[in-house]
Structure prediction request, 481 residues.
Amino acid sequence: EDSVSQSTEVPKDKLLGGLLSAGFDEGSCLSRYESVKYRKELSHKPSSYLISRLRRYEALHKQCGPYTESYNKTLEQLKSGHYTGPLECNYVVWVSFSGLGNRILSLASSFLYALLTNRVLLVDPGVDVADLLCEPFPEVSWFLPPDFPLKNQFNKFNQESRECYGKMLKKNITITTNSNRLTPPSVYLHLVHDYNDHDKLFFCDEDQTFLQKVPWLIVKTDNYFIPSLFLIPSFEQELSKLFPKKDTVFHLMGRYLFHPTNQVWGLITRYYESYLAKADERIGIQIRVFDTGTGPFQHVLDQILACTMKENLLPEINREQHIIIGPSGTHKSKAVLMTSLSSGYFEKIREMYWEYPTVTGEVVGIYQPSHEEYQQTEKQMHNRKAWTEMYLLSLTDVLVTSSWSTFGYVAQGLGGLKPWILYKPENRTAPNPPCRRAMSMEPCFHAPPFYDCKAKMGVDTGAIVPHVRHCEDMSWGLKLV
Ligand code: GDP
Prediction:
Protein backbone atom coordinates (compact mmCIF):
# COMPACT_ATOMS: atom_id res chain seq x y z
CA GLU A 1 0.00 0.00 0.00
CA ASP A 2 2.79 2.35 0.90
CA SER A 3 4.42 2.13 -2.50
CA VAL A 4 1.10 2.83 -4.20
CA SER A 5 0.44 5.99 -2.25
CA GLN A 6 3.99 7.12 -2.84
CA SER A 7 3.88 6.61 -6.56
CA THR A 8 0.58 8.43 -6.99
CA GLU A 9 1.58 11.38 -4.86
CA VAL A 10 2.57 14.36 -6.95
CA PRO A 11 5.26 16.42 -5.28
CA LYS A 12 3.74 19.82 -4.72
CA ASP A 13 5.50 23.10 -4.92
CA LYS A 14 5.70 24.19 -1.32
CA LEU A 15 7.40 27.48 -2.13
CA LEU A 16 4.47 28.51 -4.36
CA GLY A 17 6.50 29.12 -7.50
CA GLY A 18 9.15 31.07 -5.61
CA LEU A 19 6.71 33.34 -3.82
CA LEU A 20 7.94 32.05 -0.46
CA SER A 21 11.51 32.13 0.68
CA ALA A 22 13.08 28.78 1.58
CA GLY A 23 14.96 30.05 4.61
CA PHE A 24 12.48 29.38 7.41
CA ASP A 25 12.46 26.85 10.20
CA GLU A 26 9.49 24.66 9.29
CA GLY A 27 8.44 23.67 12.79
CA SER A 28 7.93 27.19 14.06
CA CYS A 29 5.22 27.80 11.45
CA LEU A 30 3.91 24.57 9.95
CA SER A 31 1.29 26.25 7.80
CA ARG A 32 3.85 28.10 5.70
CA TYR A 33 5.04 25.04 3.79
CA GLU A 34 2.18 22.65 4.56
CA SER A 35 -0.68 24.69 3.18
CA VAL A 36 -0.06 23.33 -0.34
CA LYS A 37 -1.29 19.95 0.86
CA TYR A 38 -4.72 21.42 1.43
CA ARG A 39 -4.98 23.66 -1.58
CA LYS A 40 -5.23 23.44 -5.29
CA GLU A 41 -2.19 24.70 -7.17
CA LEU A 42 -1.66 28.45 -6.98
CA SER A 43 -4.03 29.58 -9.69
CA HIS A 44 -1.71 32.32 -10.88
CA LYS A 45 2.04 32.12 -10.62
CA PRO A 46 3.92 35.14 -9.29
CA SER A 47 5.91 37.09 -11.89
CA SER A 48 9.68 36.71 -11.72
CA TYR A 49 9.82 40.44 -11.08
CA LEU A 50 7.55 40.13 -8.03
CA ILE A 51 9.73 37.32 -6.74
CA SER A 52 12.90 39.37 -7.12
CA ARG A 53 11.28 42.40 -5.43
CA LEU A 54 10.18 40.24 -2.51
CA ARG A 55 13.70 38.88 -2.05
CA ARG A 56 15.01 42.44 -2.21
CA TYR A 57 12.44 43.50 0.35
CA GLU A 58 13.48 40.68 2.65
CA ALA A 59 17.10 41.84 2.43
CA LEU A 60 16.03 45.40 3.23
CA HIS A 61 13.95 44.17 6.13
CA LYS A 62 16.91 42.27 7.49
CA GLN A 63 19.05 45.38 7.23
CA CYS A 64 16.50 47.77 8.75
CA GLY A 65 14.32 45.65 11.02
CA PRO A 66 13.92 46.13 14.79
CA TYR A 67 17.13 46.77 16.76
CA THR A 68 19.41 46.72 13.73
CA GLU A 69 22.04 49.43 13.52
CA SER A 70 20.06 51.24 10.82
CA TYR A 71 16.88 51.02 12.86
CA ASN A 72 18.58 52.54 15.85
CA LYS A 73 19.89 55.41 13.75
CA THR A 74 16.50 56.29 12.29
CA LEU A 75 15.04 56.02 15.76
CA GLU A 76 17.51 58.55 17.10
CA GLN A 77 16.34 61.01 14.50
CA LEU A 78 12.77 60.39 15.55
CA LYS A 79 13.60 60.95 19.20
CA SER A 80 15.43 64.18 18.43
CA GLY A 81 12.30 65.47 16.68
CA HIS A 82 14.32 66.89 13.79
CA TYR A 83 14.82 65.60 10.32
CA THR A 84 18.52 65.75 9.55
CA GLY A 85 18.56 64.34 6.04
CA PRO A 86 17.90 60.99 4.42
CA LEU A 87 18.99 57.79 6.14
CA GLU A 88 19.24 54.24 4.80
CA CYS A 89 15.95 53.02 6.17
CA ASN A 90 12.45 54.41 6.04
CA TYR A 91 9.39 52.82 7.57
CA VAL A 92 5.67 52.23 7.37
CA VAL A 93 4.23 51.45 10.77
CA TRP A 94 0.89 49.63 10.59
CA VAL A 95 -1.33 50.25 13.59
CA SER A 96 -3.58 47.36 14.67
CA PHE A 97 -7.11 48.59 14.23
CA SER A 98 -10.58 47.12 13.49
CA GLY A 99 -11.91 43.57 12.86
CA LEU A 100 -9.66 40.77 11.68
CA GLY A 101 -10.81 40.76 8.06
CA ASN A 102 -10.26 44.50 7.81
CA ARG A 103 -6.85 44.17 9.41
CA ILE A 104 -5.67 41.47 7.02
CA LEU A 105 -6.69 43.61 4.05
CA SER A 106 -5.10 46.76 5.42
CA LEU A 107 -1.90 44.90 6.26
CA ALA A 108 -1.62 43.63 2.69
CA SER A 109 -2.22 47.18 1.44
CA SER A 110 0.40 48.64 3.76
CA PHE A 111 2.93 46.02 2.74
CA LEU A 112 2.45 46.70 -0.96
CA TYR A 113 2.76 50.42 -0.26
CA ALA A 114 6.01 49.75 1.61
CA LEU A 115 7.27 47.66 -1.32
CA LEU A 116 6.46 50.43 -3.79
CA THR A 117 8.15 53.13 -1.73
CA ASN A 118 11.18 51.10 -0.58
CA ARG A 119 10.11 51.24 3.02
CA VAL A 120 10.19 48.63 5.72
CA LEU A 121 6.87 47.49 7.16
CA LEU A 122 6.67 47.26 10.93
CA VAL A 123 3.58 45.88 12.56
CA ASP A 124 2.00 46.99 15.81
CA PRO A 125 1.15 43.58 17.29
CA GLY A 126 -1.96 44.87 19.07
CA VAL A 127 -3.34 42.21 21.40
CA ASP A 128 -3.51 39.28 19.04
CA VAL A 129 -1.55 39.59 15.78
CA ALA A 130 1.39 37.52 17.08
CA ASP A 131 -1.03 34.84 18.24
CA LEU A 132 -2.62 34.60 14.78
CA LEU A 133 0.07 35.24 12.17
CA CYS A 134 3.56 33.81 11.72
CA GLU A 135 6.48 36.06 10.94
CA PRO A 136 6.46 36.49 7.15
CA PHE A 137 10.04 37.73 6.65
CA PRO A 138 13.08 35.55 7.30
CA GLU A 139 15.37 36.20 10.28
CA VAL A 140 14.23 39.64 11.45
CA SER A 141 10.85 40.26 13.05
CA TRP A 142 8.14 42.40 11.49
CA PHE A 143 6.83 43.44 14.89
CA LEU A 144 7.35 46.95 16.11
CA PRO A 145 9.35 46.82 19.36
CA PRO A 146 7.30 47.58 22.49
CA ASP A 147 9.61 50.49 23.36
CA PHE A 148 8.92 52.35 20.11
CA PRO A 149 8.65 56.01 21.19
CA LEU A 150 5.29 56.86 19.60
CA LYS A 151 3.61 53.61 20.57
CA ASN A 152 1.55 54.97 23.44
CA GLN A 153 0.14 57.60 21.10
CA PHE A 154 -1.27 55.17 18.52
CA ASN A 155 -4.66 55.05 20.22
CA LYS A 156 -4.87 58.81 20.35
CA PHE A 157 -3.90 59.49 16.75
CA ASN A 158 -6.87 60.76 14.76
CA GLN A 159 -7.78 63.26 12.06
CA GLU A 160 -7.32 66.15 14.44
CA SER A 161 -3.84 65.18 15.61
CA ARG A 162 -1.02 67.60 15.00
CA GLU A 163 0.94 64.76 13.38
CA CYS A 164 -1.89 63.89 10.98
CA TYR A 165 -0.95 64.54 7.35
CA GLY A 166 -4.47 65.65 6.38
CA LYS A 167 -4.53 68.04 9.31
CA MET A 168 -1.16 69.48 8.30
CA LEU A 169 -2.51 70.14 4.81
CA LYS A 170 -5.66 71.68 6.22
CA LYS A 171 -3.63 74.08 8.32
CA ASN A 172 -1.76 74.89 5.15
CA ILE A 173 1.55 73.53 6.25
CA THR A 174 2.00 72.36 2.69
CA ILE A 175 5.58 71.45 2.50
CA THR A 176 6.47 71.84 -1.13
CA THR A 177 9.91 73.14 -0.31
CA ASN A 178 12.94 70.89 -0.17
CA SER A 179 14.12 72.31 3.11
CA ASN A 180 15.06 69.65 5.65
CA ARG A 181 13.96 71.93 8.41
CA LEU A 182 10.35 71.53 7.30
CA THR A 183 10.37 67.77 6.89
CA PRO A 184 8.95 66.09 9.97
CA PRO A 185 10.65 62.87 11.15
CA SER A 186 7.26 61.20 11.33
CA VAL A 187 3.76 61.68 9.94
CA TYR A 188 0.50 60.05 10.90
CA LEU A 189 -1.61 58.91 7.93
CA HIS A 190 -5.30 58.66 8.70
CA LEU A 191 -6.70 56.28 6.06
CA VAL A 192 -9.68 55.06 8.09
CA HIS A 193 -13.08 54.87 6.30
CA ASP A 194 -14.18 58.18 7.90
CA TYR A 195 -11.23 60.13 6.46
CA ASN A 196 -11.72 63.56 4.87
CA ASP A 197 -10.71 65.17 1.59
CA HIS A 198 -7.39 66.32 3.00
CA ASP A 199 -6.49 62.85 4.24
CA LYS A 200 -7.41 61.47 0.83
CA LEU A 201 -4.70 63.55 -0.84
CA PHE A 202 -2.46 60.67 0.21
CA PHE A 203 -3.50 59.21 -3.14
CA CYS A 204 -1.96 62.09 -5.13
CA ASP A 205 1.49 62.02 -6.70
CA GLU A 206 2.44 65.42 -5.37
CA ASP A 207 1.77 64.31 -1.83
CA GLN A 208 3.63 61.06 -2.37
CA THR A 209 6.64 63.13 -3.40
CA PHE A 210 6.51 64.93 -0.08
CA LEU A 211 5.89 61.79 1.95
CA GLN A 212 8.84 60.10 0.29
CA LYS A 213 11.19 62.11 2.49
CA VAL A 214 9.48 61.34 5.80
CA PRO A 215 11.32 58.48 7.55
CA TRP A 216 8.39 57.22 9.67
CA LEU A 217 4.88 56.92 8.31
CA ILE A 218 2.41 55.74 10.93
CA VAL A 219 -0.69 54.34 9.18
CA LYS A 220 -4.10 53.68 10.65
CA THR A 221 -6.51 52.13 8.16
CA ASP A 222 -9.28 49.56 7.98
CA ASN A 223 -9.37 49.44 4.21
CA TYR A 224 -8.04 47.59 1.21
CA PHE A 225 -6.66 50.69 -0.48
CA ILE A 226 -4.64 48.98 -3.22
CA PRO A 227 -7.09 49.77 -6.07
CA SER A 228 -6.37 53.48 -5.62
CA LEU A 229 -2.59 52.89 -5.63
CA PHE A 230 -3.12 51.70 -9.22
CA LEU A 231 -4.43 55.18 -10.07
CA ILE A 232 -1.28 56.99 -8.89
CA PRO A 233 0.78 57.63 -12.05
CA SER A 234 4.19 57.26 -10.39
CA PHE A 235 3.31 53.72 -9.19
CA GLU A 236 1.77 52.59 -12.44
CA GLN A 237 4.77 51.11 -14.18
CA GLU A 238 6.11 49.30 -11.15
CA LEU A 239 2.69 47.83 -10.37
CA SER A 240 2.22 46.44 -13.84
CA LYS A 241 5.67 44.83 -13.68
CA LEU A 242 4.89 43.31 -10.29
CA PHE A 243 1.43 42.14 -11.29
CA PRO A 244 1.05 41.44 -15.02
CA LYS A 245 -2.36 40.04 -14.03
CA LYS A 246 -3.88 42.79 -11.94
CA ASP A 247 -6.62 40.77 -10.29
CA THR A 248 -4.06 38.61 -8.45
CA VAL A 249 -2.69 41.26 -6.11
CA PHE A 250 -4.34 40.19 -2.88
CA HIS A 251 -4.12 36.51 -3.78
CA LEU A 252 -0.34 36.73 -4.08
CA MET A 253 0.28 39.25 -1.29
CA GLY A 254 -2.00 37.22 0.96
CA ARG A 255 -0.35 33.89 0.26
CA TYR A 256 3.01 35.53 0.83
CA LEU A 257 2.17 37.30 4.09
CA PHE A 258 -0.53 35.47 6.02
CA HIS A 259 0.47 32.15 7.52
CA PRO A 260 -1.57 30.91 10.49
CA THR A 261 0.41 30.22 13.66
CA ASN A 262 0.66 26.61 14.84
CA GLN A 263 -2.23 27.09 17.30
CA VAL A 264 -4.51 28.26 14.49
CA TRP A 265 -3.13 25.72 12.04
CA GLY A 266 -4.18 23.00 14.47
CA LEU A 267 -7.72 24.36 14.50
CA ILE A 268 -7.76 24.55 10.69
CA THR A 269 -6.32 21.13 9.90
CA ARG A 270 -8.29 19.21 12.56
CA TYR A 271 -11.53 20.66 11.28
CA TYR A 272 -10.59 20.11 7.65
CA GLU A 273 -9.59 16.47 8.15
CA SER A 274 -12.68 15.69 10.23
CA TYR A 275 -15.39 17.26 8.11
CA LEU A 276 -14.19 18.42 4.72
CA ALA A 277 -11.34 16.29 3.41
CA LYS A 278 -13.29 13.28 2.22
CA ALA A 279 -16.04 15.03 0.28
CA ASP A 280 -16.06 15.04 -3.52
CA GLU A 281 -16.78 18.75 -3.48
CA ARG A 282 -16.47 21.49 -0.84
CA ILE A 283 -18.76 24.49 -0.81
CA GLY A 284 -18.22 27.50 1.44
CA ILE A 285 -21.09 29.76 2.48
CA GLN A 286 -20.13 32.87 4.44
CA ILE A 287 -23.03 34.62 6.10
CA ARG A 288 -22.53 38.10 7.49
CA VAL A 289 -25.65 40.05 8.38
CA PHE A 290 -25.24 43.77 8.97
CA ASP A 291 -28.90 44.29 9.93
CA THR A 292 -29.59 45.31 13.50
CA GLY A 293 -31.42 42.83 15.68
CA THR A 294 -30.58 39.23 16.39
CA GLY A 295 -31.03 36.77 13.58
CA PRO A 296 -31.59 34.34 12.14
CA PHE A 297 -33.80 36.08 9.59
CA GLN A 298 -36.14 34.23 7.23
CA HIS A 299 -35.25 36.53 4.33
CA VAL A 300 -31.55 35.69 4.69
CA LEU A 301 -32.28 31.95 4.72
CA ASP A 302 -34.51 32.39 1.66
CA GLN A 303 -31.75 34.28 -0.09
CA ILE A 304 -29.07 31.66 0.63
CA LEU A 305 -31.30 28.89 -0.71
CA ALA A 306 -32.43 30.91 -3.72
CA CYS A 307 -28.82 31.65 -4.68
CA THR A 308 -27.41 28.18 -4.16
CA MET A 309 -30.31 26.47 -5.99
CA LYS A 310 -30.47 28.91 -8.88
CA GLU A 311 -26.75 28.73 -9.49
CA ASN A 312 -26.71 24.94 -9.07
CA LEU A 313 -24.29 25.05 -6.19
CA LEU A 314 -26.47 22.87 -3.99
CA PRO A 315 -28.97 20.21 -5.15
CA GLU A 316 -32.73 20.67 -4.85
CA ILE A 317 -34.58 18.45 -2.40
CA ASN A 318 -37.51 16.18 -3.21
CA ARG A 319 -40.37 16.77 -0.79
CA GLU A 320 -42.53 13.99 -2.26
CA GLN A 321 -40.22 11.04 -1.92
CA HIS A 322 -38.63 9.61 1.19
CA ILE A 323 -35.81 7.90 -0.51
CA ILE A 324 -34.02 8.16 -3.81
CA ILE A 325 -33.02 4.71 -4.97
CA GLY A 326 -29.71 4.15 -6.63
CA PRO A 327 -26.71 1.90 -6.25
CA SER A 328 -25.03 2.70 -2.99
CA GLY A 329 -21.59 4.24 -2.99
CA THR A 330 -22.10 5.99 -6.31
CA HIS A 331 -23.58 9.16 -4.89
CA LYS A 332 -21.36 12.18 -4.92
CA SER A 333 -20.83 13.86 -1.61
CA LYS A 334 -20.84 17.57 -0.99
CA ALA A 335 -19.49 19.11 2.20
CA VAL A 336 -20.88 22.56 2.90
CA LEU A 337 -18.88 24.74 5.26
CA MET A 338 -21.01 27.52 6.68
CA THR A 339 -19.70 30.41 8.73
CA SER A 340 -21.83 32.87 10.61
CA LEU A 341 -22.05 34.51 13.99
CA SER A 342 -25.43 32.79 14.38
CA SER A 343 -26.20 29.06 14.11
CA GLY A 344 -29.73 29.53 12.77
CA TYR A 345 -29.06 29.29 9.03
CA PHE A 346 -26.82 26.29 9.39
CA GLU A 347 -29.38 24.42 11.52
CA LYS A 348 -32.19 25.04 9.04
CA ILE A 349 -30.20 23.93 6.02
CA ARG A 350 -28.79 20.88 7.75
CA GLU A 351 -32.29 19.88 8.80
CA MET A 352 -33.56 20.30 5.25
CA TYR A 353 -30.99 17.88 3.83
CA TRP A 354 -31.71 15.41 6.62
CA GLU A 355 -35.49 15.43 6.29
CA TYR A 356 -35.61 15.15 2.48
CA PRO A 357 -33.53 13.43 -0.15
CA THR A 358 -31.80 15.40 -2.89
CA VAL A 359 -33.17 15.06 -6.41
CA THR A 360 -29.71 14.18 -7.69
CA GLY A 361 -29.02 11.57 -5.04
CA GLU A 362 -26.04 13.60 -3.88
CA VAL A 363 -25.19 13.35 -0.20
CA VAL A 364 -24.95 16.76 1.44
CA GLY A 365 -23.24 17.37 4.79
CA ILE A 366 -23.58 20.78 6.43
CA TYR A 367 -20.96 21.97 8.90
CA GLN A 368 -20.36 25.14 10.88
CA PRO A 369 -17.34 25.38 13.18
CA SER A 370 -18.61 28.07 15.57
CA HIS A 371 -21.40 30.51 16.30
CA GLU A 372 -19.90 33.29 18.35
CA GLU A 373 -23.15 35.36 18.36
CA TYR A 374 -21.43 38.74 18.25
CA GLN A 375 -18.04 40.28 17.43
CA GLN A 376 -15.59 39.96 20.35
CA THR A 377 -12.37 41.31 18.93
CA GLU A 378 -10.68 41.44 22.34
CA LYS A 379 -10.87 37.68 22.96
CA GLN A 380 -8.04 35.39 21.92
CA MET A 381 -10.03 32.25 21.08
CA HIS A 382 -12.64 34.32 19.26
CA ASN A 383 -10.05 35.76 16.90
CA ARG A 384 -8.40 32.38 16.41
CA LYS A 385 -11.75 30.97 15.35
CA ALA A 386 -12.44 33.88 13.03
CA TRP A 387 -9.07 33.37 11.30
CA THR A 388 -9.63 29.60 11.18
CA GLU A 389 -12.98 30.07 9.49
CA MET A 390 -11.72 32.57 6.91
CA TYR A 391 -8.95 30.13 6.08
CA LEU A 392 -11.25 27.07 5.90
CA LEU A 393 -13.54 28.97 3.53
CA SER A 394 -10.50 29.64 1.35
CA LEU A 395 -9.95 25.86 1.07
CA THR A 396 -13.32 25.22 -0.55
CA ASP A 397 -13.95 24.65 -4.27
CA VAL A 398 -16.98 26.91 -4.59
CA LEU A 399 -17.65 29.96 -2.46
CA VAL A 400 -20.69 32.06 -1.61
CA THR A 401 -20.02 35.28 0.32
CA SER A 402 -21.96 38.16 1.83
CA SER A 403 -21.84 41.73 0.48
CA TRP A 404 -19.68 44.29 2.26
CA SER A 405 -17.78 41.74 4.31
CA THR A 406 -14.00 41.82 4.50
CA PHE A 407 -14.20 38.39 6.20
CA GLY A 408 -15.42 36.99 2.89
CA TYR A 409 -12.89 38.98 0.85
CA VAL A 410 -10.01 37.40 2.76
CA ALA A 411 -11.40 33.92 2.11
CA GLN A 412 -11.94 34.48 -1.62
CA GLY A 413 -8.56 36.14 -2.09
CA LEU A 414 -6.51 33.52 -0.29
CA GLY A 415 -8.43 30.77 -2.04
CA GLY A 416 -8.11 32.35 -5.48
CA LEU A 417 -11.89 32.01 -5.78
CA LYS A 418 -14.42 34.15 -7.62
CA PRO A 419 -17.34 33.90 -5.24
CA TRP A 420 -21.06 34.23 -5.75
CA ILE A 421 -21.87 37.36 -3.76
CA LEU A 422 -25.19 37.55 -1.92
CA TYR A 423 -26.61 41.02 -2.54
CA LYS A 424 -27.22 43.09 0.57
CA PRO A 425 -30.87 42.73 1.63
CA GLU A 426 -32.86 45.97 1.89
CA ASN A 427 -35.96 46.35 4.06
CA ARG A 428 -35.69 42.80 5.32
CA THR A 429 -36.50 41.17 2.00
CA ALA A 430 -34.43 38.77 -0.05
CA PRO A 431 -33.11 40.61 -3.11
CA ASN A 432 -33.92 39.34 -6.58
CA PRO A 433 -31.64 38.15 -8.10
CA PRO A 434 -30.25 36.83 -4.80
CA CYS A 435 -26.61 36.82 -5.86
CA ARG A 436 -24.16 37.31 -8.68
CA ARG A 437 -20.76 35.99 -9.60
CA ALA A 438 -17.86 38.29 -8.71
CA MET A 439 -15.86 39.80 -11.58
CA SER A 440 -12.60 38.96 -9.85
CA MET A 441 -11.27 37.46 -6.64
CA GLU A 442 -10.01 40.85 -5.46
CA PRO A 443 -11.34 42.59 -2.32
CA CYS A 444 -13.32 45.81 -2.62
CA PHE A 445 -11.91 49.16 -1.41
CA HIS A 446 -14.89 50.50 0.53
CA ALA A 447 -13.85 54.14 0.90
CA PRO A 448 -11.96 55.26 -2.20
CA PRO A 449 -11.28 58.90 -3.08
CA PHE A 450 -13.14 60.47 -6.03
CA TYR A 451 -10.65 63.12 -6.91
CA ASP A 452 -8.60 64.00 -9.95
CA CYS A 453 -5.33 65.22 -8.46
CA LYS A 454 -4.19 66.97 -11.65
CA ALA A 455 -7.45 68.70 -12.52
CA LYS A 456 -8.14 69.32 -8.81
CA MET A 457 -11.76 68.33 -9.11
CA GLY A 458 -14.07 65.40 -8.50
CA VAL A 459 -13.95 62.43 -10.86
CA ASP A 460 -15.39 58.92 -11.05
CA THR A 461 -12.32 56.91 -10.14
CA GLY A 462 -14.13 53.73 -11.18
CA ALA A 463 -14.14 54.86 -14.81
CA ILE A 464 -10.56 55.94 -15.41
CA VAL A 465 -8.83 52.68 -16.34
CA PRO A 466 -10.34 49.33 -17.33
CA HIS A 467 -8.74 47.39 -14.45
CA VAL A 468 -10.13 49.54 -11.62
CA ARG A 469 -13.92 49.24 -11.48
CA HIS A 470 -16.80 49.72 -9.09
CA CYS A 471 -17.51 46.69 -6.91
CA GLU A 472 -20.38 44.23 -7.34
CA ASP A 473 -21.48 44.59 -3.74
CA MET A 474 -20.89 48.29 -3.09
CA SER A 475 -21.58 50.74 -5.90
CA TRP A 476 -19.08 53.38 -4.75
CA GLY A 477 -16.30 50.93 -3.89
CA LEU A 478 -13.37 50.15 -6.18
CA LYS A 479 -11.80 46.84 -7.07
CA LEU A 480 -9.19 45.44 -9.41
CA VAL A 481 -10.48 43.23 -12.18
P1 GDP B 1 -16.40 42.32 8.35
O1 GDP B 1 -16.96 43.14 9.48
O2 GDP B 1 -17.36 41.29 7.86
O3 GDP B 1 -15.85 43.17 7.26
O4 GDP B 1 -15.16 41.43 8.90
P2 GDP B 1 -14.12 41.66 10.07
O5 GDP B 1 -13.35 40.38 10.19
O6 GDP B 1 -13.30 42.88 9.87
O7 GDP B 1 -14.95 41.89 11.40
C1 GDP B 1 -15.95 41.01 11.79
C2 GDP B 1 -15.54 40.21 13.03
O8 GDP B 1 -16.72 39.60 13.58
C3 GDP B 1 -14.60 39.05 12.73
O9 GDP B 1 -13.26 39.40 12.76
C4 GDP B 1 -14.97 38.09 13.82
O10 GDP B 1 -14.40 38.53 15.02
C5 GDP B 1 -16.47 38.26 13.90
N1 GDP B 1 -17.16 37.42 12.89
C6 GDP B 1 -17.97 37.83 11.88
N2 GDP B 1 -18.43 36.78 11.19
C7 GDP B 1 -17.92 35.67 11.75
C8 GDP B 1 -18.01 34.26 11.48
O11 GDP B 1 -18.67 33.81 10.55
N3 GDP B 1 -17.29 33.43 12.28
C9 GDP B 1 -16.54 33.89 13.32
N4 GDP B 1 -15.87 33.01 14.05
N5 GDP B 1 -16.42 35.20 13.62
C10 GDP B 1 -17.10 36.08 12.83
Observations:
- The chain has two domains: 32-257, 262-320+330-480.
